Amino acid sequence: MNILLLGDIMGPSGRKAIIENLPKIIKEKKIDFVILNGENSGNLGVGITKKHFLEFIKAGADVVTTGNHVWDEKEALEFIISEKRLLRPQNLSKDSPGKGYGIFSSKNNKRVAVLNLMGNVFMKKSEDVFQEAKKFIETIRLKKNADFIVVDMHGEITSEKMAMGHLFDGKATMVVGTHTHVPTSDHRILEKGTAYQTDVGMCGDYVSVIGMNKENSLKKFLKDPSAKKHYPALGEATITGLMVTADNISGLANKVEPIIVGKHLENRI
């Protein structure tokens, strides 16, 4: 079973890269299930629209996760109610529309549970992420309620993400961090068999400042009065993510492989 999770889709260039390349990645890597984080896919680099969501599904995504920018495109408040393949963080306030997790069918008819969480430190106010994770662990059990379990931990700080990885070790197929738009090189399988990476980065233009126009970002840091509100870099995007080959019997990880498609990061090591 090959499961792919891709980092935050960043603006128009990220969308274009996904639409053009995801079908080829799925075919070449024999991917059975795809999750991508779409919370930055709007034209301004924040939020997600129904049109863009459906483009990702057509390209091969099975589930789209989000994070702190989930409601920046207001239409998401409405279409998330009927579109079960779009998730918002489970630990948002309980009156938030939509769901924070679901159990979906893969291309090879396996049950894949996907949980979307959001960190508490330096993020928008939300419920305690570790308490919500504990409730999930008590409710959805690997190889009982789902054949595979994937956790997207959308958070700012590395310690929260690492702690979440250890909390789920042996209880989930993979725990992968999103949000910082910078891929970390710590992909591995934890002691009890759960695949982990602190952050898978973004699918966007890396000649930028975390996906935003670098010249304008520099002006803002330099307090240049001519600086404008942040807007996305529009150059050629690089796709980054993590593919996990999981065992059909245990539901745990056998192999992890970072996915990098695009010229700006191919020679980074």
In short:
By secondary structure, this protein is α/β, with parallel strands linked by helices. The chain contains 6 helices and 13 strands.
Class based on secondary structure composition and strand pairing: alpha/beta
Please state roughly what percent of the residues sit in beta strands, choosing from under 5%, 5-15%, 15-25%, 25-35%, 35-45% or over 45%.
15-25%
Number of helices: 6
User: Uncertain regions: pLDDT < 50 for 5+ in a row?
Assistant: none
Query: How many β strands by DSSP?
Result: 13
CATH level 4 superfamily: Metallo-dependent phosphatases
Shape assignment = globular
CATH-derived topology: Purple Acid Phosphatase, chain A, domain 2
Give a short account of the largest sheet.
6 strands, mixed
Can you give keywords for this protein?
269 residues, alpha/beta, Purple Acid Phosphatase, chain A, domain 2, 5-stranded mixed sheet, 13 strands, 25% helix, 24% strand, globular
